Amino acid sequence: MKAKYQVVFVLLLIVVMSASVFGAPFDPETFVYVGGAGAPQTLDPAAAYDTASGEVIHQVYDTLFEYVDGDLEQLGPMLATEVPSVENGLMSEDGLTIRVPIRQGVKFHNGAVLTPEDVRYTFLRNMLSDPAGGPMWMFLEPLLDVQTMAKVIEMAGGPADFAEIDEVDAEVLRRAYDLVAATIEVDGNDVVFHLATPYPPFINILTKGGSWGAILNKEWMIANGAWDGDPETWSQWYDLALEDMTCYDKANGTGPFKLETWDKSGNQTIFSRFDEYWQGPAKIKTAFIKDIKELSTRLLMLQAGDADGIYVGKDELNQVRSLDNVVVIEGLPQVVNTVLFYSFTIPTEGNEDLVGSGKLDGNGIPSDFFADVDIRKAFNYSFDYEAYLNEVAEGAGVIPKGPIPQILPFVNLDQEYYTHDLAKAEEHFKKAFGGEVWEKGFEVGIVYNTGNDQRKTALEILEYNIESINPKFKVNVVSMEWATMLDKLRSSSLPIFIIGWLMDFPDTHNFAVPYMHSDGTFAGYCGQGLIDLAKEEFDDLVNAGIKATDPEEREKIYFELQKRYVDLAIGMPYVEETTHRVMRDWVRNFHYSPAWSANFDFYSVYKEVK
Q1: Of 188, 380, 459, 470, which is least surrounded by CB within 10 A?
Q2: Which domain holds residue 280?
């Protein structure tokens, strides 16, 4: 090869290498995130209640407010122009009337201009549709002091329980509509919310985080088959199947990215930049969210430059920390905890794989085994919290002080909590059932969802320690598919189970209700015994806590709730974990907020090779 051609070849090689890292062309206008936790369930903000759905909605829609720079303590306006407060006159002194001025000139992706009527329609439509198991309780509770539209229908004089909405009288349905409609009105360029009860975190529910605050375009919604705004017809759209809802697989928001397609067969969602975004266009032109289960594939894509960020489980981080051109950001705060729950009233018939004989005879447990507070305390003292945090969670988090994460306000950081103390565990086992447990022993199945190795390890720690206390104690760690586990939970059939709870909005109330209220998510899973106890010990305090507008009064209430939960050993919160992100080193301006469902905010990030 002649010298001049050698020089040209080398120059070409340098150009190719500078435009390609690990063999993939570097494209500064495209961002690819590859997750592994599952695909979205729906793109409809009225129904989306999973993080995969929320991740898509985050990119496409705006909300009335946002957390400035992701800071949970710094609320700022988004589609609103001001954050309401008593001081600026947009909130009444009793907190029951909240006026929100709406930003003018904002465009939806279809070209329509945002109006206050769009905002009102969004929340009326979403509450009236109230899909089962969805997030609309967050609006129904502050605005109407109920959890479901079924309860609104009951308020309107309808049946306390009905199988089908068609069974409800038309006049009752109209009265139910009127109750909902009265909670939100348009006054000039303002939207006015009328709350049924003081609700300090109401603004947080309207803030960029979960998907339920996303603002829809009324005309586009109606044109695509949504509720037409007629007070007489709303029930036709009540509690539809996810696939039948208007925004199941389509979207039209005011956000920085337009939804191009949700490719279910290809497990990917594709976005394109919205150049008329009111805050200015993003630097990224095209974005992808892909779902790939195999970590090995995700790692190859990251190293080849085919992915800009990927999901990596905490127990898999060692595989990426030392990779060239890869950045791992750890210690990101979350408003989350993981709890081991006890069922207070366990069905024994047909449940032999978990409760054995169903009796306190050494070969099983009776239905009310965990209704005995000494059993619960013994289990709590048997767990090695420090070992789990340091060896399993690799130090990424803290040991709880009770059921409410310590990142939230009104948590007593001096609350005495359980430690790994087998002497105390033995003491409580000997007290349980008047000494019968210690004398006869027991056998119980404790359950984790298949594939969650960290939860499996947590239960194995508990198993080892309990069995070391008394040779008559037998604990069996049982793997169960998530769908099967959910069926068992609904019938309160799991003696012990582990579930994590990630905040809906950053307020203490959002943990007090699911963990302690008799109508909360987990009371039903733990049986009638816990429901009865919650009514006696927790309900009044939980209800008082959310209605208190004085921070000092709220603190006093939540300190007491925390103390009662710990004293009664209702469950065993055992870790509050931090999280992490894994990305290529060319990713710039990464922003994070504990409130976001999104792993990456496509509006803020951009790419640059140095």
Answers
A1: 188
A2: 24-38+264-333+579-607
